Amino acid sequence: NEVMSCEKGDRDPMEDPLFILESGEVYRNPTEVKMSQIVMPCHANHCGELSVGQLLKWMDSTACLSAERHAGSPCITASVDDIHFEHTIGVGQVVNIKAKVNRAFTSSMEVGITVSCEDLFSSCQWNVCNAFATFVARRTEEGKVRLKQVIPRTQTEQMEYSIAAERRRMRLTHAEIITDLLSSNTAQLECQEYQGAVSAERTRVESVELVLPPHANHQVSTFGGQIMAWMENVATIAACRLCNAHPTLRTIDMFHFRGPSHIGDRLVLKAIVNNAFKHSMEVGVCAEAYQGAGALRHINSAFMTFEVLDKDRKPRTLPRIRPEPDGKRRYQEAIARKKIRLDRKYIISCKQTEVPLSVPWDISNQMYLSYNNVSALKMMAARSNWMLSSEKNKVRLYTLEENQILCFKVETHVTVPAEQAFHLLSDLRRRHEWDRHYQKCDVIIQADEDDTIYRVATPCVSKGGKGQDFILLASRRKPCDSRDPYLIALRSVTLPTHPATEDYTRGEVLCAGFSIWEESNAVTKISYYNQATPGVLPYISNDIAGLSSSFYGTFYSCNKYLEENRDSLAILPPSDL
Predict the structure, then answer these.
(1) Is the pLDDT of residue 9 over 80?
(2) Locate the START domain: which residues (predicted)?
């Protein structure tokens, strides 16, 4: 098992103490469920490490109990987002799993799962993985279950509640977008020949399992976690056949359950190594079910990434794969998926402070950059420790300093319907009508109706200097329900077609944008957020220091612009440029 460096008494990363609310009430999330299991030899693989299949079963059980606690009725696993396993767990160590419902929609809900490991002899704890699963409430005799809303009570819950809507949006479009990306990328890929390559056919595995009562839940349906465990088992065998060694599972891509399985089903599990790279391999695995002489039913498909570690726990170089004629498509798609996977992990999984100011934009990472853009703004808006810096005529300037990062918020109210304010502020080409810092703004790319890339030119803030320009991705979001605002998120991206020029200094925006709340049919609260970067700070530093109130003039102009155009039809960028 991996040796973790920690001091005795380190805090469990899963531990979530009881909260004392402003009212003095002691609060614990009512949907929270915890499970702790000590890893016994029967749970471990040949390396003395907890089988990932067993861990998946425990995770699914815990998450299902949390979902059912909220729904008050039986629930089934619909999908699981990407899982990245950071560490392995050894025999004798304790697995702590915590699950809670982040948000409920009409009949489905997102459950957040945190897994940590505890060494009982050293009192060390460390994070193993985080996951998000979607559960659906089963129909009852009364009909379809309509779930009650989750009411977030803490800053962390508000943050997860808000971002859950964005994750759901990505889930719903994920399969279609992945299909489009694969079809466009694989056309340019060729199957390379490697000396000593292993035939992909050698790694093929097929196994059948009979679903018995111990494999089923209290609804006599096969546990989703049990199906995942069987899939992990055959995928591991396929990976072993390629490298003749014991592989370690590192990631499982997002997957959806296509249909249910029940007691008495014969579950056919198939796996094959689609492609091998220098230090990792992708294994494709699917599960199909049948009863008696019935036809096969597709239950699930997944892609798992394995590594083989040497004695120093470093990834070993792997043999290459030689696809069979009928496997060339899988081979090519694995290459495309690897790029998509790296983009997704790089943009989504890393902490906001680790994301570079500008990320290269292209069609393959559009969905993930848009997600990151909106999620970053939601996280900033969910913070509760903003400090009022100044106020003038009901325009308030707030600041927030955390981890040596300065953020500011400007808040005002307008007598304009929220949707109209959203449409007017969405079109950055008109921002120069109320914001003197926007000298010129042009549309570069209209990716879709929600995402637009602009080039913005701003005037010089010091005598004799050059103006700045920004390449900004603007991501728009309408409310998922009445508990959500309209959002316009902004962040810098890079485009090879628009490099920096001598006439302007290229500026960067890490996170900025508008949150637009409908307080009544006629009154709207508008909050503008910005995480100060070297390119942005010169325009606001005097206001933050109390030496100027130019922010008031800008947002007074914004208010006037919105009210003058409250009855006009906002003209959005053309759909295809």
Answers:
(1) no
(2) 386-555
